[in-house]
Specification:
The protein has helices at about 5-30, 105-140, 145-180, 225-230, and strands at about 40-45, 45-50, 50-65, 70-75, 80-85, 90, 95-100, 180, 185-190, 200, 205-210, 215-220, 235-240, 240-250, 260-270, 280-295, 300, 310-315, 320-335, 335-340, 350, 365. It is α+β, with helices and mostly antiparallel strands. It has 3 domains: about 40-55 and about 290-365, conserved putative lor/sdh protein from methanococcus maripaludis s2 fold (Beta Barrel), CATH 2.40.420; about 60-70 and about 210-290, Efflux pump adaptor protein, beta barrel domain (Elongation Factor Tu (Ef-tu), domain 3); about 75-210, RNA polymerase II/Efflux pump adaptor protein, barrel-sandwich hybrid domain (OB fold (Dihydrolipoamide Acetyltransferase, E2P), Beta Barrel). A hairpin with a 5-residue loop joins strand 18 (about 310-315) and strand 19. The longest helix is centred in the first third of the chain and has 36 residues, at about 105-140. About 15% of the residues are buried.
Amino acid sequence: MTPRFFFTTLFSVLGAAGIVIFGSKAIEANVEPTISKEAKPLPVIVERYQLKDSYTTSTRFLGVVEAASDSNIGFEVAGVLSELTAKEGDFVRTGQLLGRLDTQQQRTALALAKAQEKEVAAQLELAKLSLQRVNTMMAKSLVSQQEADDARLTVEATEARLETTQASVRNAEIVIEKSQLRAPFDAVITTKLSEPGSVIGPNVPILRLVSVGEREAHVGISTKFADLAVIGESYTVFAEGKSIPATLRTIGADVDPETLTVLAVFTLPEQPELRVGQTVALELEERVDAKGGWLPITALMEGDKGLWTVLITKKNDDGELITARESVEIVHSAADRVFVRGTLSADADVVASGMQRLSPGSPVEIVPAFRIVN
């Protein structure tokens, strides 16, 4: 071995040893800072898990506002519509005149019936006078019993004819009276269905009237809630974001074959903002028996096999507050909260949010809910 080769080999060995020693020291220097012997606790907001035996669900059903009275009205007799004073949008009072039929024929019939009434009344007066004379003569045995009976029966027959003619007079008066259309209740005229000059039959709609004041909510509800509803009880309906108290007036006995719902009618308070045809929502609550508790949905992380994971806070053997994992199952969800059951114990403090920053065993510090943690 030449001296040059010897020294070259020696320097190579020493260089390799130095690299190994330097690399080990660098690795130790790089590793030591990442293993913190005293990790700083992370601030967390917690919510107490309170165990309950049941929860309440809310279900909404859509309905529509109806007037207490909403009717298409018309004449009870036939005739030609001669006058229609009401206009769409008019407010009318009970008994107010809205329209008339032409009554020339009816007035002629009334005049004829009254003339017949006078004629029969005169005949009755004559028959009564004749009966008086016959009775006087009968007392003196100047007439036979048959003549007396004829006079008496003539009076009775004439009285019957008078009643018939009087009925004809009253019937003609009723027809004329029915030829006037009057408002059956305080209302607003929403639709005009005929025009003057039209030939109108009995009970043909002329105007649509919607009553003012009291309103009703007609809501289709499921059969389950129909069985639970109590007539006379107060419920809550919502219209344009406002809650309105409503009293259940009646509930149907049959199921609508199209919607599979039962009609429930609620009486609403008088409120000017409620209009006929407006949509309302009825909110009904139901108690469900189940053990569990409510948590914010932000406290959940997806787990395995359909379960969810939450983190709770507890103290370790050294008395430090750390996190621990528990598994839960969602029983019911409502907006931003869920009703869950699982391995959680009653009154456990559950981390309410920010779980992505934590892992089981992480040291934490509980802060008030109103404090914002970045």
